[in-house]
Write a structure and sequence with these properties.
heterodimer; A: Sufe protein. Chain: A; four-stranded mixed sheet; about 20% strand; B: alpha/beta; seven-stranded mixed sheet; four-stranded antiparallel sheet
């Protein structure tokens, strides 16, 4: 059960129960739908960009604890960052989930997501919101992505 | 209670005796696929060690032995579903391929635009998608028998749904997602009274109950071997001989022909007409061995043990606060779909696995059923006769552990 405790630790449980930035953004200029058809995880990520800066980022949707907590943590981590900074964090999160060497300073609180690497069937749950925000920022129109 | 000695039974299934994440394996994913007894594994192994050759061809001894084993298994399948003749048993890759075969070879040639195909809301995707493909090809329409909140078929308007345009009724005998046992015998009678042919998807029925296609009076019956203790990749189609005779071949190739020239090819007789190419010989032999094994245990004993497990598991789950069973039909096979309040089914699956308890989580290839209940997924425990009462307790314990973790 030790791996399990590592995966479902307090931070994850807290963000699952009370997801941060769980709302729509009225004047979002970037938006993407994320869908994991195998699990039924579905979310929408809203981004308000001011030039190169992520002025606001939020999400709505439903899914397992891992996908909800990951999305919530994502919004906290990226708010106020530039697109380049966000990209660097995105890369670190991916590395942490695949067991690669990471920069702890950059990863910060997001390190809790690395527990998912012990559960290969669940990695997609944790990456869904990150793929979705990436797609939202990259595209200037409504876009749908799927992790399957 | 059943007459089975659970320890003797479990000794037949070598895979059950292992630890997962430091806990004894509790395998409750039997509706996805069943485990295989030593008798089946050894039959397949014996074939490859001693008898392997291609069938229906060589004059040499091995080919003769392989052919005899293959056809002996066909006779067992015939007896297993009580078909009239061995010619009515076609080996396929599984229930899915058998449904596609009937859709394309039997139904498609007679379909006109606006003809109707009738299925039910409870179907597995395998009994939905082949018919949707057919509708796209021909302009026919798919009609769906609705379901009730308890997970039973709503047959209120069933007779009205059997119209003069209905070309086939295709329905599952047992729902894989909820375990509901459908009243197929009376449904078949009502359809056949209007000369509407009927296909029964028996994939979830054959592991649990005696099947008699003549008593059911269906036109087609399909099932997969791997859910009834046989290897994967083998299944069977039962079809009425006169219908199969009139149908064009599904696939072309070796074994399904009598003679080939570039001018004219003459198709083989039943059942070879529908078995193009070298078949899954070892799978067929494994399926025959699985049937022998089920007969040896006794299908009534299997059903009794599973119902016993279903009863105690249902009672114990119902006594737990915060757990809801999805699918509460009066007649059920040993399948329990459930939701733990506040915990997504995928988290349930992972937490259970950490305690050695293997269940299925997801939509169970029955997304319309999930949409009916407005849920993305369920956790599903499905029992076989080799499961024990201790394993029911392990399931209950896993639910409680999950609730503690998420408290």
């Amino acid at each position: 059960m030790s791996d399990l405790r590592e995966l479902y630790q307090q931070v994850i449980m807290d963000h699952n129960k009370r997801p941060r930035n769980f709302r729509e953004i009225d004047h979002a200029n970037h938006l993407a739908h994320g869908n994991n058809p195998l699990c039924g995880d579905k979310l929408v990520v809203y981004v308000k960009l001011d030039g190169e800066v992520i002025e606001d980022v939020s999400f709505k949707g439903s899914g397992c604890a891992i996908s909800m907590a990951s999305a919530s943590l994502m919004t906290e981590a990226l708010k106020g960052k530039t697109i380049d900074e966000a990209q660097a964090i995105y890369d670190q999160v991916h590395k942490s989930m695949t067991g690669e060497e990471t920069d702890r300073n950059l990863l910060g609180k997001l390190e809790v997501l690395s527990g998912v690497k012990e559960f290969p069937a669940r990695v997609k749950c944790a990456t869904l919101s990150w793929h979705t925000v990436h797609a939202a920022i990259d595209s200037d129109h409504d876009i749908s992505i799927s992790t399957e | 209670m059943s007459n089975l000695n659970i320890n003797t039974i479990r000794a037949d299934f070598p895979i059950l005796h292992q630890e997962i994440n430091g806990f004894p394996l509790v395998y409750l994913d039997n509706a996805a696929t069943s485990q295989k007894p030593r008798q089946v594994i050894e039959a397949v192994s014996h074939y490859y060690l001693h008898d392997n050759a291609n069938i229906h061809r060589g004059v040499h001894k091995l080919s003769q032995r392989a052919t005899d084993l293959y056809e002996a298994a066909r006779a067992k399948v015939r007896q297993f579903v009580n078909a009239n003749s061995d010619k009515e048993i076609i080996f396929t890759r599984g229930a899915t391929e058998a449904i596609n075969l009937v859709a394309q070879s039997f139904v498609r040639p007679m379909l006109q635009p606006d003809d109707e195909i009738l299925i039910s809301h409870l179907e597995h995707h395998a009994n939905i998608v082949p018919w949707q493909i057919l509708c796209e090809q021909t302009g026919a329409k798919l009609k769906v028998i609705p379901m009730t909140q308890s997970g039973e078929l709503d047959l209120t308007d069933f007779d009205a749904m059997l119209t003069e345009r209905t070309r086939i009724l295709a329905v599952g005998q047992v729902s894989n997602a909820l375990g509901t046992i459908n009243p197929v015998k009376s449904m078949i009678a009502r359809a056949r009274a209007k000369n509407i042919p009927v296909l029964i998807d028996g994939a979830q029925a054959v592991p649990h109950m005696t099947v008699d296609v003549q008593d059911l009076d269906c036109d087609f019956y399909v099932f997969s071997g791997h859910k009834m203790f046989a290897p994967t990749g083998i299944g069977a189609l039962y079809g009425r001989e006169d219908l199969l005779n009139a149908m064009p071949p599904y696939q072309g190739g070796g074994d399904m022909i009598l003679s080939v020239s570039f001018e004219k090819t003459i198709y083989n007789e039943l059942p070879a007409k529908f078995e193009a190419g070298t078949p899954n010989i070892s799978g067929v032999i494994g399926l025959g061995a699985a049937i022998d094994y089920m007969w040896q245990i006794g299908i009534d004993n299997i059903a009794a043990q599973e119902h016993h497990l279903l009863d105690i598991a249902t009672r114990k789950i119902e006594a737990l606060p915060g757990v809801r069973i999805i699918g509460t039909a009066a007649e059920k096979a040993a399948v329990i779909s459930f939701m733990i309040e506040g915990v997504h089914p995928h988290d349930v699956g992972t937490i259970f696995d950490q305690q050695g308890v293997a269940i299925r989580t997801g939509h169970h290839c029955a997304q319309p059923v999930m949409e009916f209940y407005d849920i993305p997924a369920t956790a599903r425990a499905s029992f076989a006769f080799y499961n024990s009462e201790e394993e029911v307790d392990a399931l209950i314990n896993a639910i409680q552990k999950t609730q503690e973790l998420f408290a």
